[in-house]
Design a protein that fits this description.
169 residues, 0% strand, 84% helix, mainly alpha, Growth Hormone, Chain: A
């Protein structure tokens, strides 16, 4: 997204950062509410819904062009933030709840490691896709690379829907 906003749209870093903050703000608001909801309903379906909304948000981001309205960009980022916020708390609760009490520290460490690994892998994968497309398609490669990167992210989120649906409560 920073590449899109700064290089593709010509925004300065302050304005790009402001737009990007919409995702984080929504996550910060939704995650505690989702945690409360998952305490009542269980963790499986909020996780599935969260991954579904996240996949939708990534798909929306894949459609960004040089002329996409700022409102559309914000709506897409808010959708990603909503999906992530819905997913995080129930997923953490499910993972921590599956560990015996005497292994909670190990479970928390494993969860943090998996989260970090996922972020690094996601950034690396999207960066590899983006730069490969950009190198092969100099004319319009920026937007093509962004589109394919976000479609790949939507695909990974779709796999997350499946794994959230089939795991134990």
């Amino acid at each position: 997204m920073p590449q899109y906003l700064i290089d593709g749209r010509g925004l300065d870093s302050a304005r790009a950062g402001l737009l990007l903050s919409s995702q984080s703000i929504v996550m910060a608001i939704i995650a505690p509410l989702s945690g409360t909801l998952s305490d009542r309903l269980g963790t499986r379906w909020p996780s599935v819904v969260g991954m579904g909304v996240l996949a939708l948000g990534a798909a929306l981001l894949s459609g960004l062009t040089a002329t996409s309205a700022v409102t559309w960009i914000i709506l897409s980022l808010v959708t990603v933030g909503l999906g992530t916020g819905i997913f995080i708390s129930p997923n953490n609760s499910a993972l921590m709840g599956a560990a015996p009490r005497q292994r909670q520290g190990i479970a928390a460490g494993t969860l943090a490691t998996a989260r970090s690994f996922g972020m690094v892998l996601g950034a690396g994968l999207s960066g590899a896709i983006f730069t490969t497309v950009l190198a092969q398609t100099p004319e319009g490669g920026l937007f093509t690379g962004i589109r394919i990167s976000f479609l790949a992210a939507a695909g990974v989120a779709a796999l997350g829907i499946f794994t959230s649906a089939v795991r134990g409560q």
